[in-house]
Amino acid sequence: MSAPDDRSAEGRGDPDRSRETSATTAWRDLRRFTDARVGLGRTGTALPTAAHLDFQEAHGRARDAVWSALDPAALRQALAPLGSPVLHVRSAAPERRTYLLRPDLGRRLAEGATLPSAPGSVAFVVADGLCATGVQRHAPAVLERLIPALPLPVGPILVAEQARVALGDEVGERIGAAAVVVLIGERPGLSATDSLGLYITWAPRRGRTDAERNCISNVRPGGLSYGEAAAKAAWLLRAAAGLGATGVALKDEMPAGVLPAP
Amino acid sequence: MAFAQTIGGTRYVFGDLKTLLARATPFRSGDALAGVAAASAAERVAAQRALADLPLAHFLDEAVIPYEADEVTRLILDRHDAAAFAPVRSLTVGGFRDWLLAAEPAAVTALARGLTPEMVAATAKIMRVADLIQVAAKCRVVTRFRNTIGLAGTLSIRLQPNHPTDDPRGVAAGVLDGLLLGAGDAVIGVNPATDNVEAVMRLLEMLDRVRDRFDIPTQSCVLSHVTTTMLAMERGAPVDLVFQSVGGTEGVNRSFGVSLALLKEAREQALALKRGTLGDNVMYFETGQGSALSADAHHDVDQQTIEARSYAVAREFSPLLVNSVVGFIGPEYLFDGKQILRAGLEDHFCGKMLGLPMGVDVCYTNHAEADQDDMDALLACLAAAGVTYVMGVPGADDVMLAYQSTSFHDGLTARAVFGKRAAPEFEAWLARMGIGADGDRIPARLSPALIGLT
């Protein structure tokens, strides 16, 4: 893009000057419509210093969030009032670095895990994933709204450490669940380090692919609200029960009108 | 067929072609995760020497995944153009590298249909970064829909205005911001937060209204699953480009919920809409090293070779745009800035050699050992290599997908530093609208109020 400097044409006393000033404000005003980094201005072709350092700060915080840990005791306490048994499990990945490099270990339960049997139920896995902050903060509130709306019997809730989404397949299979809902910490971004994702898998068993799941993402204040996420999950579970499947076969055609207020 | 090479008094044996390719690959975490990486630096070089001595024609005799077992292998071999291959058919992989570095650009470009993905992947494995840049820069690939992408001296930008809840006004604000910073000639492409058909159609209609209102010579795309886009087309939505993520084996495509037959059907449906004014390249594909292993559909083939095979899938459908999402798949496949840099250049080289309009999402996630400095280095290398397009994300921060890519500013900088321009129709539009005449001002013709931002 060429950037000819036509400022010389804008002499002092230019009758359009005041209109241009308000137009300048309008570009920054785009921020009213989105949390994206719009209207940052520019110096030459680059970011102005303040915007550059804002980005660096956000990246630093996100990097730190990747290494945040789940507090299983506090989570179990927060989930206890929901009335389902709450258990604590770990994946086969012993710590964070191994977890990052070996996703296969994060998809398997550690040896020796004992799970209850709850055939035909919807089981829940509350998993740290790539950032524990969002799960810790939002999972109890989503489940509090989802569980009463379930079209199927309510199964156990498992708090899982160093876990990937597919850990739910082994959990669901061993429980004998009709479906598993994995509530998992999403990869931290710069604007949000507390985002929660919900992955719903019908007839969970080891070896399911991601095309056989439905996903609800960006659950957090400022993203999808707790109520919206719970309503959508309940809708998908009802549709999955009718279809006998989740994934690409199950199109999300939930009409917008049935969403509750946040 | 087995291969052997002795270096430093040790004899290394590689049981078959896919093992030879894997052991010859510069180190990356995904090949270690798959258990196919060389066990030592010496073994890697032994494999590279053995690979350099292999005749290119051998790739037509030994498939890395059996012909009977995989529709991507069948596509690759059935579509091979012997006449286009003729100029290099007698060369070894090493001889081919030498040939490419000395060849005239037109001769390199003319080979595309005569090359298989495995041939170009093998060649990339014995090339340095400088080689990958220099040879890719010789390839010329031009595609068209409402503008002309890939002409010499151009660098296009995909405007990526994602929003966490697909709010149409939030997306529109991102679109306007990008247009004001010269982005959007490759496509205005939104990744939707959900695959809800109604939400996807709302976005398609909004993007089309903005394009129409400002009369922008470009195309829009909502990057939903191909089946969702097909449903949207059935319901009359204004679909310019059909998007899909694809991979290099039948199994990874199955994990994405697609097949060659489904992609063909989607393309025909889009062609029937006749929305392109300058051309009929109606497909947009994304790929990325590691997706096959992630879906457990890699057949013990290294991730760079499988990535190149995904380009055979893409080229079958004459796409307008193809890009690797190189740093997006995660650190278990590309651990740090060094691995991402090389992989991005390999992907661009392989795509261009196979005749694709290749872009790269220069990006990383927050659990990778990488930062914006690494992206600056990759973007500069890609611009030097003549990359067709890169992404433009507000402030480089994708607030929906939670990763960092290149910003609108980065696109402007790359164009300025490397003397590149936007696609000609789009550049003329920027001038017509007064964009760039004053960096701080929104020209009246692009007033936010015109697209409902009041």
UniProtKB/TrEMBL annotation, chain A:
Cofactor note: Binds between the large and small subunits.
Subcellular location: Bacterial microcompartment
Catalytic activity of the protein: ethanolamine = acetaldehyde + NH4(+)
Record's compositionally biased regions (Basic and acidic residues): 1-20
Cofactor: adenosylcob(III)alamin
Residue numbers binding adenosylcob(III)alamin: 165, 186, 215
EC code(s) of this entry: 4.3.1.7
GO MF annotation: an example: ethanolamine ammonia-lyase activity
Keywords: Bacterial microcompartment, Cobalamin, Cobalt, Lyase
Region named Disordered: 1-24
InterPro entries referenced in this protein's UniProt entry, alphabetically: EutC (IPR009246), EutC_C (IPR042251), EutC_N (IPR042255)
Record HAMAP family: EutC (MF_00601)
Reported function: Catalyzes the deamination of various vicinal amino-alcohols to oxo compounds. Allows this organism to utilize ethanolamine as the sole source of nitrogen and carbon in the presence of external vitamin B12.
Family of this protein: Belongs to the EutC family.
Known partners and oligomeric status: The basic unit is a heterodimer which dimerizes to form tetramers. The heterotetramers trimerize; 6 large subunits form a core ring with 6 small subunits projecting outwards.
UniProt xrefs under PANTHER family: ETHANOLAMINE AMMONIA-LYASE LIGHT CHAIN (PTHR39330), ETHANOLAMINE AMMONIA-LYASE SMALL SUBUNIT (PTHR39330:SF1)
Name of the protein this chain belongs to: Ethanolamine ammonia-lyase small subunit
Species assigned in the record: Roseomonas nitratireducens
TrEMBL record, chain B:
Keywords: Bacterial microcompartment, Cobalamin, Cobalt, Lyase
Stored InterPro entries: Aldolase_TIM, EutB, EutB_dom_2_sf, EutB_N_sf
Keyword Lyase: yes
Top-level taxon of the source organism: Bacteria
Record-listed adenosylcob(III)alamin binding positions: 192, 244, 294, 400
Reactions catalysed: ethanolamine = acetaldehyde + NH4(+)
E.C. no: 4.3.1.7
The keyword Transmembrane is assigned to this record: no
Binding-site residues, substrate: 158-160, 191, 286, 361
Cofactor: adenosylcob(III)alamin
Pfam families: EutB
Cofactor note text: Binds between the large and small subunits.
NCBIfam families documented for this protein: PRK15067.1 (NF011649)
The protein's assembly and partners: The basic unit is a heterodimer which dimerizes to form tetramers. The heterotetramers trimerize; 6 large subunits form a core ring with 6 small subunits projecting outwards.
Membership in a protein family: Belongs to the EutB family.
Reported function: Catalyzes the deamination of various vicinal amino-alcohols to oxo compounds. Allows this organism to utilize ethanolamine as the sole source of nitrogen and carbon in the presence of vitamin B12.
Protein name: Ethanolamine ammonia-lyase large subunit
Native organism: Roseomonas nitratireducens
Gene this chain is encoded by: eutB
